[in-house]
Amino acid sequence: MHAFCKRATRGEEGPVGTQTGLTVCNLEARIVNVPMERPVQTSAGEIRAALLVLIDLQTEEGITGRAYVRSYSTFALEPLKQLVENLGMTLEGDVLAPLEIYRKLQATFRLQGPQGLTGIAASGIDMAAWDALARAHDLPLVELLGGARKQVPAYGSLRSMRPESVSEEVRELATLGLDAYKVKIGHGDVWADLETIRAVRSVIGDDARLAVDYNQSLSVTGALERVRILDEEELYWIEEPTRADDFVGHARIAEEARTPICIGENWWGPHDLQKSLEAGACDYGMPDAMKIGGVTGWLRAAALAEPSGLPLTSHVFPEVSAHLLAASPTAHCLEYLDHAGPILEKPIRIEEGQVHVPDGPGIGIEWDERAVERFLIR
After folding, report:
1. Considering 81, 182, 184, 291, which one is annotated as catalytic?
2. Among 21, 90, 142, 204, which residue has the fewest nearby CB atoms (within 10 Å)?
3. Annotation marks residue 184 as catalytic
């Protein structure tokens, strides 16, 4: 950290209200390994911990913007942290203007490409910049974006995919008043899929909505064979049945399936959403805040979705997604799958199936420093 940076004590903020013209002076990144009480099971294997990079973007005026991104593998965690810090150094002395920061980082990646770790790092910085700006104006992020604080419908995204374990998890989530759920399938043949689907249905009943997620595990031909059978299950949607970037393949599936198709968690920026629209690849879109381009990328994606009326849900990151959906013209529902809650002072809150957009300034992320210290990777 540089000497000229007037850093506020953690948990405190500098002046707020009408302050403008903030200047970026430092960016700090820390990595934590947060164990999950219930591992996330997918067709590709289990995820037992949330590997997160915590971002604190500091300004000379003492206001700090916060965000986090995640890595799905331990070997990429340290490189992601280093990339965030390296990019932060390129912003030192710059005005805190998120759109200009976004433009500068995108230009930096013009030859490297905006996908993968570069895109994730830039998205995390973008979210932290918007958080700092909202804090400077003493506004929740959604209000800074021109939207209104309101409740956002949520669905419960199940971590379990085995029939013997989904029932218990559904009963736990049902206490939040949820009336929609999603379960991962694709670990076996279509009859294994049906066994899992019916295990969930036996608990939630026929009135609740149920979506399924294949996590890209099928070929297009294999997906076409399965959706013909799954069409009889009256599902909410079928998510990522085949390779995420195969928009033409998803369009073939969407054309033949009666069940809606959902993709988008692997859209690398708004241009991928545009490609999906042009191909007719999906009925629901699911941007991921750390892949779509942070707040700036999401806003541009939401603007593209609006003319065609493409309903948008979210992929993880419920803290920032609540604000973004509340400001999106075709917002549909929020995926509730909480990874960062154990290290936050105030985890996202759901009551009667609705997410409450925080009323404090910014995104609403405040680190629980004792928990961060416990899970910190040094």
Report:
1. 184
2. 21
3. yes
